[in-house]
Structure formats: C-alpha cells, structure tokens
Write a structure and sequence with these properties.
Belongs to the Nudix hydrolase family. The chain is α+β, with helices and mostly antiparallel strands. Helices cover about 20% and strands about 40% of the residues.
C-alpha cells in the first residue's frame, strides 16, 4: 500500500518534483510513500510528510479512487491534508515544490499514478 497527501492551503495543493530515480526525475507527485507493516495509512502519511517535507500535517478525507501503481503490485490512496503550526514544506527529498491552484494543475507533468487524483482534486481547490 502506498499513500499520498494532497496538502491544501489557501486554495492550492502542494506538488513535489521527484529527484530520483532517473526514469521519473522531474515528474510531479503528491508527497507520501509506503505504509510500513503494523502502521496505519494515516500514521504513514504523517511520518512521510515529516521525512520528505519537515512538516506536521492533519490528515482529512480520501481524494479520488484507489489507483493501481504502474508495476501492479501496489495501490495508491491519496488523502487531503493540511499543514499544522504554520509549518512550511522544505524539499528534503524533492528537486522542487510548487503550490498549484485548480487552473495550474495541468502545468506540471504528473506521475501516472498521481494523474487520476488531479481530476478529483480540482473541485476541492475551486471551493477552497
């Protein structure tokens, strides 16, 4: 199981550019990662956001549907999230971070697994 966080602030969502591996470097994703054995999806997201972005987050509801990953062995589940305590994301594991509004979602090249989530995210940003 792989989880991702759609961190939303001020009507924008945080997009993160992969720095590795080379075949996906420069493509964009939502922060997150694998759920470890014995860890809940929510706990995994809180840990991954701290590791990748040095932020504390509150996790909300699901965004979009389960997406089968390209290699077929995992499923991606994305949750809405918000920053806590005025934390500002830092690109600890990514080459670049961008805050995108609903109209800017198509200005970056999303990883295939993250792309279906973008459509589901658009109404959440428009209403923010």
């Amino acid at each position: 199981m792989v989880v991702g966080a759609a961190i939303i602030a001020g009507g924008r969502v945080l997009a993160c550019a992969r720095s590795a591996p080379p075949e996906v470097a420069g493509r964009w994703e939502f922060p997150g990662g694998k759920v470890e054995p014995g860890e809940s999806e929510i706990a995994a997201l809180i840990r991954e956001c701290a590791e990748e972005l040095a932020v504390r987050v509150e996790i909300g509801g699901r965004v979009g549907r389960d997406v089968r990953m390209a290699h077929g062995r995992s499923v991606l589940k994305v949750y809405a999230a918000r920053l806590l305590h005025g934390d500002q994301p830092k690109p600890l594991e990514h080459s670049e971070l961008r805050w995108l509004s609903a109209t800017e979602l198509d200005t970056v090249t999303w990883l295939p697994a993250d792309a279906p989530i973008v459509a589901a995210l658009r109404p959440l940003l428009s209403n923010a």
